[in-house]
Amino acid sequence: MKVVWDARVTQKMESLALGMGLIKNVEISSDTKELDSIKNKIFQDIKRNTTIDAIKDAAIVKAYRTFYWQSLNIDPTKIRPSGEALTRRVLKDQEIPIINNGVYAINLASIQTQLSFSGFDLGKITPPLMVRYANPQEEFQGIGSRHRVLNGTELLLGDAEKILCIYAYGDALETTISLKTKDILLVNYGAPNISSEILEKGIQTCLTYIKKGAGGEIGEIMVSRSVLPEPG
Predict the structure, then answer these.
(1) What's the pLDDT score for residue 1?
(2) Residue 170 · residue 197 · CB < 8 Å
(3) Interacting residues of 74 by C-beta distance below 8 A, sequence separation 6+
(4) pLDDT of residue 107
(5) Strand 217-225 to strand 3-5: parallel, antiparallel, or no bridges (unpaired)?
(6) What is the mean pLDDT of the chain?
(7) Does 37 reside within a domain?
(8) Domain contains 171
(9) Cα-trace Rg, the chain
(10) How far is the C-alpha of 141 from the C-alpha of 172, rounded, in Å?
(11) Phi, psi of 179, deg, nearest 5
(12) For residues 222 and 20, what is the distance between their CA atoms, to the nearest angstrom?
């Protein structure tokens, strides 16, 4: 999947990257029992190895928090990176939302890795992917959120036609994984101090969990990095 990085993004954020992977011919359903053993192990490991007070200092959580503050103008104590938010729910013995087996597999991978993931219905994507800033007055409808009119400063992941995600924290409703989804585009979001190797390993882990929960055939895995344009 080709990724176009807008010049304004690369000039300000040369160290950004996206991990991406494909899985096709999945069977999306509300049945998540195939993921029970993975869930139990992840939850046990999290509770054994970290605490509510310590999670903010985990390396990946810390990288996202700094990125939120410095680059996205988001207070991460109010809008938490998804991996951190889900991990906190586990540590508080709160339920993890079960939308369907595909989304649940992605959430489990996010808890394990603390990386922020998006899962998109590939059939609703119009390549190429684009990392860009919002246009003033551009409209966005996220999952479980009110309709928003953007101010032009938001960093976005989009395709050739529409917004897919407000970078690293808010997926669009239109392209979410549903019971009709057959092919999934999986994305995870880089930030400074999160390496390409970490992103690629996270994609591999997450695709394995999706396959365990929903079947399918794992396809290409890649990482795209922002690169400054050549002078002249």
Answers:
(1) 84
(2) no
(3) 68, 169
(4) 98
(5) unpaired
(6) 94
(7) yes
(8) yes
(9) 17
(10) 6
(11) -65, -15
(12) 5
The number of distinct structural domains making up the chain is 1
Is 142 in contact with 172 (CB distance < 8 Å)?
yes
Round to whole Å and give the CA distance between 104 and 97: 7
Task: Express each pLDDT in 113-133 by its tens digit.
Answer: 999 999 999 999 999 999 999
Q: Per residue in 140-193, pLDDT tens? A: 999 987 788 999 999 999 999 999 999 998 899 999 999 999 999 999 999 999
Q: Which domain holds residue 64?
A: 3-225
CB atoms within 10 A of CB 203: 26
Instruction: Identify whether 128 is preceded by a cis peptide bond (ω within 30 of 0).
Output: yes
* 222 strand-pairing partners: 20
Which pair of structure tokens corresponds to residue 10?
Answer: 């690369």
Residue 221 belongs to a domain: yes
Given the structure tokens 């192990």, which residue do they identify? 41
15 versus 8: the higher-pLDDT residue is: 8
The average pLDDT across 190-204 equals: 96
What is the pairing mode between strands 3-5 and 129-133? parallel
Q: Is the pLDDT of residue 232 over 70?
A: no
Q: In the chain, where do the E strands start and end? A: 3-5, 17-24, 117-121, 129-133, 139-140, 148-149, 155-158, 163-166, 170-171, 184-189, 217-225
pLDDT at 144: 82
Establish if 232 belongs to a structural domain.
no
Residue 7 belongs to domain with CATH number: 3.50.40.10
